[in-house]
Prior knowledge:
Helix 2 packs antiparallel against helix 3 (58-80) and helix 5 runs parallel beside helix 8 (182-194). It is built from nine helices and two strands; from the N terminus they run ααααααβαααβ. The chain starts with a helix and ends with a strand. The longest helix is centred in the C-terminal third of the chain and has 27 residues, at 148-174. It has one domain. Strands 1-2 form a two-stranded antiparallel ribbon. The chain is globular. Helices cover 70% and strands 2% of the residues. By secondary structure, it is mainly alpha-helical. InterPro entries: ER_ret_rcpt. Belongs to the ERD2 family.
Amino acid sequence: MNIFRLAGDMTHLMSVLVLLLKIHTIKSCAGISLKTQELYALVFAARYLDIFTHYYSLYNTVMKLIFLGSSFSILWYMKRHKVVRRSYDKDQDTFRHHFLVLPCLVLALLINEKFTFKEVMWTFSIYLEAVAILPQLVLLQRTRNVDNLTGQYVFLLGAYRGLYIINWIYRYFAEPTYSTHWITWISGLLQTLLYADFFYYYINSVKNNVRLQLPA
Length: 216
């Protein structure tokens, strides 16, 4: 654990809290992609298969439970809550996200560090997380006008991955025993690059104190 890893985890946690705050207090999921939330739920379910079989630390277990619980809570709100689900824009959220799942699974079967069920599922979650934000970015591109909480949520998600990249660089130079993890590194870099356009417009909107608007 180092300051960059901790900052990344806390930023990730803040992104989830911002989204839950929007959904729970405003009773709205407008601008939020259900497709992306389904992908993230699958990511965490595949990644944390060891939650009841391996204990690493209290911090590790608590964070796993938080991300699993929050992901499925968000899905419940968007699909089942009688008020929240009415604000979901199904007509705009049309990205065919199931076409992302199968290629990621096949890639995990072909390229992994160890061919075991848990390792393949973990690798699958890494690949899928790299592209899980795509339906959300496409939805924002279509609707163009982005409310503050949705903008903050997406920005924090991207910042979390950026901080993790800094964490990897730090560990590579500071820890002599730190080994290379090409799968994680390349997937993380791809994930961060997907946010580049959004970051540009988000930072400009904050700097100029104007509502975030994405180009058509």
